[in-house]
Structures are given as structure tokens and as C-alpha cells.
Design goal:
single chain, 228 residues, alpha/beta, Rossmann fold, five-stranded parallel β-sheet, 5 strands, 11% strand, binds adenosine-5'-triphosphate, binds magnesium ion
């Protein structure tokens, strides 16, 4: 009885949702939308950007006259810096949602680091990273936004804030698909317009969110039956 009550209470609260996927798949766009939608539905949520500092390091390398961050700290150094920075970001995000009780919407999570390590050919570091990231709880839902790397490439070029090669995007796409966690991800086709992707994500969170638009009251009414 107590266990059943606890299980029910555990399901009642959406503690954390993660959005993962290759660069340009739309994680940041969708994570912001999801945090806003949850908050509007009466379930206060905070967006967390679990960055690994790669972009920042890229800018630093450029300023120091190196074409890419690998030339500054080496491939292994870069993976180490990225793993540590992302670990700290995730730890801070979890701590903050524990303190505030708000739902954490994670823009990237541990799986992104494992995929990054694989896609950069640093497999021997993956075990170490996994040992460090193991302490983080799995979010209730991890959405893997899937998109053709060519479309992701076009989006990044349109965004105009950074550049990624097709080779990198394809390697990252393969890395996500070969992770042992892959079967636990909720795959979201993210190749269409952003609104369509938002609808797909919301449909999977039917217990916590009205499917599209709607108010907090609707979410409450849907909650008991439709919760995943
Ligand atoms: N479904 C979509 N269709 C077309 N453009 C999109 C879509 N979703 C996002 N965009 C645009 O594509 C660009 C990349 O999106 P976004 O920054 O959300 O991706 P990301 O997965 O967070 O990328 P990164 O991993 O590089 O941070 C942005 O300029 C965004 O406005
Ligand atoms: Mg992003």
C-alpha cells in the first residue's frame, strides 16, 4: 500500500525531461517551448542548458589563432574539458530542481556526452565518463530528436552562430543510434516544422500537458488517466 502510494506520488510529479540529439536537431528551441508550456500548464519548469563549453572553447581557440579547439587542448583534452563542464552543468541543474521543486527541462544530458565521445573517436574515455555521470538520475523521459544530418547542417548554417561539418553531424547521428541507452529514448521525428515537433513532444507528455495549447485545468483533468 505504502509502496503503491509512493509509486503514484513519484509518477505524479514530472521531475526531469531531457532533449538530446545532434547539433541543429532543435533541442534548444524545443526545450524552451516545453519549459514554457509546462509552466503555463501550472507545472513550473526551468530550462537548463547543459553545455559542454565546446562553442566557448572554439571562440577562445579562434582568438588565440587556432582554427579549432582541438588545436588548443588536443582531442582528449577537449573531451575531458567538455565532460567536466557538462557534468558540472548537469549537477547544478539537478541541485537547483531539487531545491526549487521545479521540473528540469534538460537541453542535453549524459547521453550527449557519451555520443560526443564516440563521435570524436575517444571510445577509451567513455567508461570513465560513464563512471562519473552514473550518479545522475535518468530523466523520466528522454526525447531523442532525430533529423537528417543534411537538414541539421542547413539549420546550423542559417543560424549563423557556428559551423559544423557534415562528417561530424553524420558521426554524431550514428553515435546516438549505437548507444546502449538508445532503446530507452523516445524518438521524435524532428525533421518537420518546429510546431509539428512541439506537438509530437507534447503528445508524449499527455499526462502532464494538454496536447496542444489548453490551460492548466485541462492538464489536471487529463492527468490521472493519461499519465505515462
Ligand atoms: N523544426 C525546425 N525547422 C526548421 N528550423 C528549426 C527547427 N527547429 C529549430 N530550428 C532552427 O534551427 C536552428 C537550430 O536549432 P536549435 O538551436 O534549437 O538546435 P540545437 O539542437 O539546440 O543545436 P545545438 O546542438 O547546436 O545547440 C535554430 O536557428 C532554430 O531556430
Ligand atoms: Mg542548442
Amino acid at each position: 500500500m505504502v509502496r503503491r502510494l509512493r509509486a503514484r506520488r513519484g509518477r505524479d510529479r514530472l521531475r526531469a525531461v531531457a532533449l538530446i540529439g545532434i547539433d541543429g536537431s532543435g533541442k534548444t528551441t524545443q526545450a524552451h517551448r516545453l519549459a514554457d508550456a509546462l509552466t503555463a500548464a501550472g507545472r513550473p519548469a526551468t530550462y537548463h542548458r547543459n553545455a559542454g563549453g565546446r562553442r566557448w572553447l572554439g571562440r577562445l581557440a579562434y582568438r588565440l589563432g587556432r582554427p579549432e579547439p582541438e588545436r588548443l587542448v588536443g582531442r582528449s583534452g577537449l573531451l575531458a574539458v567538455e565532460s567536466v563542464l557538462r557534468w558540472l552543468a548537469i549537477a547544478a541543474a539537478i541541485a537547483s530542481c531539487l531545491v526549487t521543486g521545479r521540473t528540469a527541462v534538460m537541453d542535453r544530458y549524459a547521453a550527449c556526452q557519451y555520443a560526443s565521445i564516440r563521435a570524436h573517436g575517444g571510445q577509451r574515455w567513455e567508461r570513465l565518463a560513464r563512471a562519473g555521470y552514473r550518479i545522475f538520475p535518468s530523466p523520466q523521459v528522454t526525447f531523442l530528436l532525430t533529423v537528417d544530418p543534411a537538414e541539421a547542417y542547413r539549420r546550423i548554417e542559417r543560424r549563423g552562430t557556428d559551423h559544423e561539418s557534415m562528417g561530424w553531424l553524420t558521426a554524431a547521428d550514428t553515435a546516438y543510434r549505437t548507444l546502449p541507452e538508445y532503446p530507452t529514448f523516445v524518438l521524435i521525428d524532428a525533421g518537420g516544422p518546429a510546431e509539428e515537433v512541439t506537438r509530437r513532444i507534447r503528445a508524449h507528455l499527455a499526462g502532464w500537458l494538454p496536447p496542444d495549447g489548453g490551460d492548466a485545468g485541462t492538464a489536471e483533468r487529463l492527468a490521472p488517466q493519461a499519465r505515462p
